[in-house]
Amino acid sequence: MSLKRFQLDQKYTALQHQHLDRHTQVIEQGVTPLVQRHGKSLINFSSNDYLGLASHPALKQATVDYLRLHSLGAGAAHLVTGHHAIHEQLEQRLAQVTGYPKAMLFSTGYMANLGVIDALMGQLTDSKSGIVYQDRLNHASLLDGARLAGVKLRRYPHLDVAQLNEWLNHDCTEQKLIVTDQIFSMDGTEAPLLDLIKTAEQHQAALMIDDAHGFGLRDFSRPPLPAVDVYMGTLGKAIGTFGAFVAGSELLIDYLKSRARPFVYTTATPPLIAAATLAALDVIEQESWRRVKLQQHIGRLRTALIEQGWQLLPSQSAIQPIIVGSAENALALSKKLLEQGLLVSAIRPPTVPRGTSRLRITLSAAHTDEHLSQLISALAVHQASFR
Ligand SMILES: *Cc1c(COP(=O)(O)O)cnc(C)c1O
Description:
Radius of gyration: 22 Å
CATH superfamily of the largest domain: Type I PLP-dependent aspartate aminotransferase-like (Major domain)
Strand order of the largest sheet: 4-10-9-8-7-5-6
Structural class: alpha/beta
Number of strands: 15
Number of domains: 2
CATH architecture of the largest domain: 3-Layer(aba) Sandwich
Distance between the termini: 55 Å
Protein name: 8-amino-7-ketopelargonate synthase
GO molecular function: 8-amino-7-oxononanoate synthase activity; pyridoxal phosphate binding
Keywords: Biotin biosynthesis, Pyridoxal phosphate, Transferase
Bound molecules: pyridoxal-5'-phosphate
Strand content: 15-25%
Number of helices: 14
Catalytic activity: 6-carboxyhexanoyl-[ACP] + L-alanine + H(+) = (8S)-8-amino-7-oxononanoate + holo-[ACP] + CO2
Organism: Alkanindiges hydrocarboniclasticus
């Protein structure tokens, strides 16, 4: 038995030389928006817990109540004996809040994206006859979905619907699937959804959106986003729990339940997570101040940083990157903020293009005005050295 021939030592040393080795950082304690690392309390500006629900008492209570009566683990895959009543109830609720006829749970967003793209494109009767079109900045799981499906992939420049149209005009293939993040993870920018819907209609292509960073942040009582063929949302970000779902027509969901391999061949998530997620959806409806607070923070931060002269991106979302250029600058700035108790991650190539290294700030309704003031004044001090 030996891994010797895989030359992991050389490969890993090469990674280290390129500063591409990655490490987990232990969070000793965390109640949004604070975390403790190395015994030091930090204000976290690098979390996806946009509404502060991950530590909400109602969600904790829902899991405790559920556990009193039921088992912890699902016990099996959904198609065997792992699909509990609370899973079913959550799927119906998710269909209702997103405005689609039907929804199904996946264990993670990553698996949902693999499952959908592979089920739609990888299992075509003639596997050569499909093309997946993706925004260049799409999430890795969407790209991996195309890889798993083994289908032809075309990546258009970020938000470039004109380029997409040109390809769609020229490509004569039967099944065309356009896939986009609704809000882009590293930029916070939004996909031109109406244009994409029009484009998909013109070319009889299907449209899938990944709303990982948007689901839960819109008012459920207002009309949802315009419907697309495949809607994917995650539950580990604004919702504060774990997992993901896909919503669409009844036929789509029935088909995916039979054919999406990352759904079929995995254990269902613990049902208590579904209980917590249902509680989160209630909280979102009842505590609309959380969305309002988040919007206020976004507006205030943008105004202050533009005034200070930082280069921002056209993002109206909770993701607010500051472009600083070199990886060194991004790292240095992140380190300085850390010394002041502010946790803001530096994002470097290959995650983002060379020369666009950035500080990626994410905001949460759980941040207080005072937390935001601390970040804004710290950045004001550092601005001079990065101009
Ligand atoms: C986080 C994220 C995912 C993955 O979701 P998980 O539930 O964390 O696996 C997929 N797509 C996008 C755009 C994301 O930001």
